[in-house]
Amino acid sequence: MSDTNCSLSKEFEAFFIQNYPKVKNFARRLLMREQDAEDVAQDIFLKIAGKPAIWQDPEQSGKYLFTMTKNYIFNIIKHRKIERKYENIMIAGNPAMEEFGVTDKLYAEEIALLVQYTVEQMPPQRRDIFKMSRVEGMSNALIAEKTNLSVRTVERHLYLALKELKKRMRQEG
To answer: In terms of pTM, does the model score above 0.70?
Structure first.
């Protein structure tokens, strides 16, 4: 790794350590769920990791981070409303939507298989941490306690697992 890349990597790591808790807490206040807040914070930092112009400017980075987080959360909420509306239509038994529902179910199953395959290909420790977090719903602190790792290490494994899943989804999508 070149000195420039190493320097940028260390700068981003410092930026991440300083701002991740703030972004996560902001997201938790809006979404009311710890796991959703962690997902949002990780997604936000994944999006800006390769864009040093955003996070290197201390005056703009804070404003940008919270605006980006707020917009991301609003999109999640809007998507959830659409999902609920769709579920209500399906429950009502609208025949025009049934064919669309079958396609969605097949697509969801395909995605689930892709996620399962990707998770199984992960290094054992990352896979176990991911499953404890996403399948069993354990908090990062509890996972850290059970695995004798630091919370920061658990967060890093989850970050890498999500990054890997998103990369796979982009390749397949």
So the answer is: no
